[in-house]
Amino acid sequence: MVKSPIRLPSDLPHHSDRRHSTCSSHPIAALFRLHRTIRHRKPTNNIEKSIERFQDDVRTKVWVAQQQEENDGGNDKDFNPKLYLKNPQWEPPWAGVEIEDAVESFVLQIQDLHVKHQKPTTSKNLTYLQNQAMNSLVDHPYLFICPADKNMGITIWSLHDGITKILSQHLNNAQVYQNITHEIQAKKAELQHRWASFLATHSRFLPDNVVKFFKRAERVYGFDKIAPFRATCKVHKHPSVFRPVVAKVGTILEAISKWLDSELSLISEAYLSTWCVKDSDTFRSEVIQHVVRSTHRQATLDARAMYSNIDIDHAMGIMEKWIDLYISDHMLPPLARKGTIIAGLRLVMQWNLMKFGDSYFQQLIGTAMGTSCAVQFANLYFGWHEKEVIFPAFRDALQRIPFYKRFIDDVYLIWDGPFDDDWQSLEHVFNNYGILKWDFPKKASKSVDFLDLTLTIEGNRIVSKTYQKPANPYLYLPPHSAHAPGTMKGVIFGLLRTYYRQNSKFSDFVKISRLFFKRLVSQGWDQAVLKQLFKTAFNKLHHQLENPPPPPDPNAPRINQLFFHQTFHPNDMPRK
Questions:
Q1: In which order are the strands placed within the sheet that holds 241-246?
Q2: Least confident interval from 9-23, 88-102, 424-438, 461-475
């Protein structure tokens, strides 16, 4: 479907239209609509720390370049930059007279500018009452504050209610979690023993750089750090529930999980890329090109708590089948280390330890939450069922599924014909795979919501428009937030470009753009300022559509860049 060229709508809302704004009136959202980056009276940069970091970056780049020259360009086919952990004791060597003199000259100029911009003072961008309110919420003894799911702001609970809900919905479920508070030291010791046993048994099957990564992780992370258990609140659900979040970064088993993620991604890219969705843009570009017949119906399916409903013993058998298939196709000989991958997966999945408050828990069933390889593991687990059972029966033999896409635990499909006995058979097949269950719609629909799109059948095509959850509070940056001047330009242009890609009809694009404008006005932005920002964004978008940039040249020389890092303050050194 061809759209009209980009132009600035002539009837952007006036100030009097603010009463028609669709911004959420959710009380929690209203409270936190005041949130912004706080502007201190003076810049707070630790200039010495920034200079030290910059010097280390320069010296490190010089050292790496020298190593690549000595090693004929540094072509190490086994090296994976994701599996690298810097030695905290290593200091980059001196970079040579010419480079060190240039750095020193730069540092002197930065220090002069820093002193110059320390003199002006400014008022905070919070009023006295706002500042007092924010301070009272920090470590409040009776309040529990956690982020809402799907980037939908902040929720506030009484401490008792929040913790009670998390415990009742998750951690007190004895089938999924075991309380190991009184045996945590023994669990740490056993984990250390299993780690050592894994390395002793399987190191000979791994590249040297991977083994080095594991051993360095042991020295840097150790075995005492336990991942904190957190939660986000699904405010778009009624009643609201908590989504479990486990922060595994910096824990010992994440080293193995990162390696497993790189190994499993090779299988996923080889076999699942045709039906597993990577992002909304790719999905939309495929679905709007599909030719729809009068007998076609749309449906979306949702897995019930996919991660915690994957039986690990069943999943291990599936992983072995994927690895055997990969080996038989002779696609990558190193994946012959089948036993090492399976042993690593068992260690990561069965030893997911977490801490909540002063209590410790171990996950008993399901995919280890928060771990790096969780997405690939879950995708491959159900992907085998799709490849071996669902597609042969319903897509190929019965020809009832002309289009099928899955994004982890959400499925979008086009069904050819009525929701009859074959549809009930499909539901039975989906739900006859381990302990994982899926929610199925009972009737057809011409319009469905999937990812951030609303998809509607019109004639022989599917048209899309932007979908936004009804409870979305639209917490955009307010005008008094202490962000760099160009930040809001990027926010507006980025969202308008996204809206243009998502909406098949230009009228839908104009409608969502106007709503975006109104929501920013509701956040306190001046309409004259916004109109200029929107006009600039529309012109830039129109220019990019008329003159699309050429695809990147893979053989083009790489541009090396260095960054001087500092915290932004409106009165500090300007970027130029």
A1: 177-179, 359-363, 353-356, 227-234, 241-246
A2: 9-23
